Structure formats: C-alpha cells, structure tokens
Amino acid sequence: MMKGYKKIIALSIAATLVYSYFTGITVYSSDEITKQEFTNVSDLQYEKKENSIWITGYNGSEEKISLPEKIEDLEVTNIEASAFKGSKIKEVEMPFIKDIGECAFLDSSNLEKIEVSSKVLVNGDAFNGTNINTIIVNYGEEDIADKSISQWEEIVKKIDGINLDNISGKFITNNEYTKNLDDLVGPVITLNGDAEINIEIGSQFVDLGATAYDEFEKVDTIVTSEGSVDTSKLGHYIVTYKSIDSSRNLSTLTRKINVVDTVAPEIVLNGDNEITIEAGQKYEELGAIGIDKVDGTFKASVLGEVNTSIPGEYILTYTATDNSGNSSTITRKVKVIDTTAPDITLNGKNEVTVEAGSKYEELGAIGKDIVDGELKATISGEINTSKIGEYKLTYTVTDSSGNSATTTRKINVKDTKEPDIILNGKNEITIEAGTKYEELGANAKDLFEGKKEVKISGKVNVSEPGEYMVTYTAEDTSGNKAVAIRKVKVVDTTSPIIIFNGDKEITIEAGTQYVEPGASGKDIVDGSVEVKISGVIDTSKVGEYKINYSTSDKAGNKASAVRKVKVVDRVAPIITLNGESKINLEVGDKYEELGAVAKDKVDGIIPVTINGEVDINKAGEYTITYKAIDNSKNESTISRKVKVSEKIAEDEDNQVKVEKTYNDKLLLIVIISGVIILGGVVAGSVYYYKKENR
What we know:
- The protein has 694 residues and is mainly β.
- It is built from three helices and 55 strands.
- The longest helix has 43 residues, at 650-692.
C-alpha cells in the first residue's frame, strides 16, 4: 500500500517540476546540476535499508545542502517521512534520491529551491508549507522540448504542498534554450501568394514561401517549408510552412498545389484535309490522331457521314479529349463528285446483219450509272432493209451530272443473214440441284424463210452442282448458221434432311438402359451424309432430355434436329413387412406395430404410411394396410392380418391335449396298418410275377 502511494507521489514531484515552469518556477536540465559532495555527513541521520541508505533526519544549520550520491559505499536512495520537517533549509540538492517520504519537508517555510531527479517518487504532503519557487530537474536523456505545456502543467499539478499560483517568470531552462511558459502562442505565418495554386503540368514549381511574426516577442521568425511537388504528375500536393519562436511554440500553415492539365491535345489528320472521291466508290475513313503532352497519342473520335451515292460536300468533325477533359476539334471536307460517264450496253450484238427484205427489230441499249442507276438510251439513225448496205445506229445515255456515253451498232443488210435465234427465258439460269431442269427452248426466224427449227445440244446434270452450257443452233437453206448459248448454273443451297430411326419422342423407364436409335442424313446431291449425335441421358433421374442431331453437306448446308427422351418412373415401390404377414394374439395381449420398409428403384427408401387399428380387447381379425407413394405418384400397398382370439380355459386346454394325443396315436396305427397292407400287396405281386415267368 505504501509503495503504491509512494509511486503516486513520485509522479507528482515530476509533475511539480513541470508545473513549476508554468507557474513561475524555474526548471533546469541536468546539465546545470553539479554533483556536490555533502561536507557534513555527520549532520545527517540515516539508516541502512534494502542495501541502500535512507535519510531519516538532519541536525545541521546550513541553509543550502547537497545530499551525496553514496554513504559508506551505499547509494543514498530514500528520504524517510518527516526527515526535514520544519527545517530552516533554503536550498536542497538531491538529484540521486529516488523516493521522498510523506511530510519529508513539511512546514519548511524557508525552502525555495530544490534539485531532484525527473524519476523521483514524491509521497503525500512532502512539500506542504514550503515556498518553493525554483525546481531544477535532472531529465536524463529526456528532452524537455518533447513535453507540451499542457503535459508539464499536468505533471506539476500532481506535486503536493507547492503553491505555484503566485509565482511569476515561468521558465524551463535547457542547455539549448529557455522556454517562457507565459508565451503560449506561436508565430503568425503569412503565405506569399494564394493558399491554393494551380500550375500546369510540366512547368517548374517555384515556392513563393511565407513570412512569420511573433506578437509576444515582437520579432520576425524563420519559416521553413516541407513537402515536394512533382510537376510531371497530375495531382494535389501540400507544402507545409513551419515557424518556431524562442519559447518553442510551433506554428504551421499549408499551401495546396494543384498540378493540372489545361492544354488541349493537338489533332493531326491522317491524310489530306480535303478529299475528293468519285461517287459510288467506298469511302475509307483515315481517322485522326490526338497528341497530348500528358496522355500521349490516342485515336480521335469522328462525327459525320459520307454518302458516296449522292454527290456533294460532306464535313467530318474529329474530336480529341484528354483525360483532363481538354478537347480539340478539326474538320475534314469530303467532296463526292460524279465525273464518270454511265456504262452503255447494247441489247444484242454490236454488229447485226439483217437479211434484205426482213424487218429490223431494234433491240435497244441500256445505260447504267453509279449515281442515277438505270438510264434510258436515245437512238439516232435509220435502217432501210429493202436496200443492201451498211447502216449505223447511235445510242446515247446522259446522267444527271451531264456525263454522257455513246455506242454504236452496225447494221449490215445482206441477203446471207443467218436466222435470228431468240432464247425463251434468260441467257443465264440458276436452278437448285436435285430439281428438274425445264428446257425453255428458243425461237429462230429468218427474214426470207421465216421461222426456222432450233436444235438444242448440251446436257444439264441436276444431280451435280456446276455450270452447264446449252447450245441452240438454227440454219437456213442458204447455209447461214446461227448459234446461241444459254448458261445453266446448278447450285446446292438446300440443307440435308435428318431422318430419325424410331420415334421423334421416346419414353423409357427409369433405371433401364437407353439405346440410341440414331438417325440418318440424306442430301439431294451428296446422298447419305454423316449425322453427329450429342446429348446425355441420365436414366437414373426422372426428367426430360434432349438428343441433338446435326449434319452438313459438301456445300456447307447444315441441318439439325432434336429428339426428346422422357425418363419416367412407372414402377411402384416395393413394400416389405417387418415381421410376419399374419399375427395371432389373444385378447389382452399387447400389439406392437412392426412397421414396413418401402424401397423405390428411383427414389430409394421412401416413407410408409400405416392405416388400421388393432383392438386387443376384442376378438376378431384386423387388417393393417401399409401404403408407399414415390415421387412419380406410383403407389403400392400391402397388408398384415392380425387375429385376436379369446383365451382358452385350462380344463379345455387339457381336453384338447388329450384329444390331440388320442388323435396322434390313432394316426400312427393307421399309418402302420397301411404300410403292412402295402407290403403284402407288393410281396404277392412279386411272387405272382416270378411264377408266371418260369
């Protein structure tokens, strides 16, 4: 108890030392403590305790004393309670004392200055009634500057018996500085420039600095700064400005530096700023590149469209936006022009020979323009079929842009003109493989002879995709021969068909093995094709499954089909009775229900419901029914018969036993008699048989 109390007082004295500097007491560091030897050890009263010296009293008259570190080669560690009570001492140096007892300096009114260790333990009322105004503290390695004023105040307030309220000049002295505890306010720091500054990334940061002025000391103080600004990286940086006055009051102020990117990226077009393309051509977007000093290069977005089917001027806008939201735009002009003359195609040959006297049938010409599409041709020139000679017809088409195209047809009016063959239908026909080719034929007409027979040669194999030529020939009596050709393309665009083996939908019992019936593939061209099968059937689980079938022909035409397989459970569970199916009881016996077990091939062991009661107090036959239903609603039942009989009286029981014994004996006699008779019959038969065979 006493030791704990002593520790509290020790803390108090340390606090006293600190608080003294707040209240006017001057506190010094250990550097100012001189290790003086106590010259009049004989004036001290002491005892040897715990292998150390304890001061118990003082008989001297000196006003200033210094307690030694050792006496008789033992450390002086303690001052006992009331050891210096009422003494006339003014100053006491005791830097080696570890414990100051209760009331040790009680009512020592002359005591003004003490020197102690920062780790001394001061017990209650040790300095009551003193007038201490200066405390020298041996801090050891502890720097007094590490203690805030509030911390020292709290320490000092814990020291009993010292009234510091009326003490002025509150200083803590260290070998490096002196702190004035009345000066509690640090210097006022004023920033040069704004508290928040934006600077462009990549530029140089120049610290504007700050100034500081201490109102208590009426002087300017030094300002230092901490913090770095990386202008190569976007972000927010803090520079802290610090200033400390001579009383160790620290002031801080911060400035926020924002490294920002406000410069929009540069946009460079890929290709020319102005592009001219021919109508009908495909416009290839060349794009643009954004170049930013921070984000590097990136693809610019483009807005706008170019319709190459319509001549005109189109504006494309390219935008590049960096990660800081800075945007740049640039435009490209695209001119769609039509300088291409239409294509003109004669219907029929460029040179036509017309039999003299025949009628000239104008076949015309077709103009096609990349912008205007199909154009009607105008025809100039005349033909006189009654007069042999060469005639020219000119065909002209002009588009909306004024581009014109012309072509000519030569008409030879002769008397040796072969017949004219006109195909029925198109010159080029496409039919599906496997279908029937219907020959459309052709007509031939000679100016002089009129209609002529057309011979057809060439075959079309509809079972084999490819290109086939059908040739049409007509010849007049003059030996003029005309030939026309029709191209027939046989293509395969028809998918094969999948034919199921068996039903499209199969239902199988759960637990049975699924046998895949398979399917066959048939193509109109390739014939039989391979069918691939995928899908898994888990016959252990009731459900609906799908088997997928797929195939393709050589032309790449694909087909697929799905077979649905239902796994069902139509088998009822099996119920097995625990015990006999028939139980005999007597009235008054106890009936114990043995239950039953139901097992399903799919669901395994399933619950069994029991219906029926047995009245063991009433004779009769009772039926207990056991029912089990599986998850597929298959139901099984089984029953147990319980017969309750009246009890048989003891005399009746004996009678029954007698009757049973009599009956058993009678049965034995009958059996023995039967055996004897049977033996006689057999012996007689054998004798008779031997006699007959002699």
